[in-house]
Amino acid sequence: MTQQPSAQALVPFVSVENMMRLVHQIGLERILIDLTDAIEEDFLRWDCFDKTPRVASHSDIGVIELMPTSDGLRYGFKYVNGHPKNTREGLQTVTAFGMLAEVATGYPLLLSEMTLLTALRTAATSAMATRHLAPGDATVMAMIGNGAQSEFQALALKAVNGIREVRLYDIDPEATRKCAANLAGSGLKVVPCSSAQSAIEGAQVITTCTADKQYATILTDNMVGAGVHINAIGGDCPGKTELHRDILHRADIFVEYTPQTRIEGEIQQVAPDHPVTELCQVIAGKAQGRRDARQITLFDGVGFAIEDFSALRKIHDYVQDGKFCQNLDLIADPDNPRDLFGMLMRSK
Fold this sequence. Notes:
Elements: E1 10-14, H1 16-26, H2 28-44, E2 55-59, E3 62-70, E4 74-82, E5 96-102, E6 108-113, H3 115-133, E7 140-144, H4 150-161, E8 165-169, H5 173-183, E9 189-192, H6 196-199, E10 205-208, E11 215-219, E12 229-232, E13 241-243, H7 245-250, E14 252-255, H8 258-264, E15 277-278, H9 279-283, E16 297-300, H10 305-318, E17 326-329, H11 340-345
Parallel strand pairs: 1-6, 7-8, 7-10, 8-9, 10-12, 11-13, 12-16, 14-15, 14-16
Antiparallel strand pairs: 1-17, 2-3, 3-4, 4-5, 5-6
Helix pairs in contact: 2-3, 2-4, 2-10, 3-4, 3-10
């Protein structure tokens, strides 16, 4: 007789379909606000977390990474890839899934898709950084790179930061057309632009999010005037940057986890001791963020495991009623924990 799965064996799983249903039920902008707040809550307890640069396996065409962390009570990790050439083959550049587990037993609490969730949490992290670093009267953002992340970024800064106008540029005009069409009716004024230079005109917030796995100069030094905030979120691995290095010498730079950003971020272009401030210090009131109207602030965002942990724990909260998940028989859990073999044999 086959043993029926126990409650401990069943792990809630949030599929892509259920993630989409969840977003529509709660509302996209509401989820972006909730994720921003959840990430900020966890940055405020930064010292509670294990911290390590992500474990990356690089190839000539992309990267596959694991991003783990724990706050001592729960453990989370994300599997994620980055393959820029995938779009030419009709595939996503980034795919991901993640798990949240209980430290006391090691048993999983949640398994979730994270391709959509990574886009949401990345946008929420930009909104959190913008909340602390951008000019207080910022209403216009430039979005340089109009791929899969762009709409999430624009809507997060609208919902959290009060952005009212987004100026779009991509080297691929079709990407800009796609983004503009998707943002139609969002409440944002959407302005497609023919160059990065024209996109940043009048913008107090500039977000760069391009995919090419190379050193690139999306923004040159002469393009960046005083008083702006930059979210540079496209660089996320060694050998991949978006800003001219002279910008880094004019800006006050804020990062997630310094050892990881030194390897993967814009600051890989400057000296290893170039001064940076971890964003958690600003959020906790231990370091200054924006101090005057002419300051250039730069969030060198590469993505860090605590942000994924925050997103997973928030999704875990959302699915407690069982409406947006399904139970997977994922864990072998025999009646006698020392008789795994007997469980197998009795299943004939």
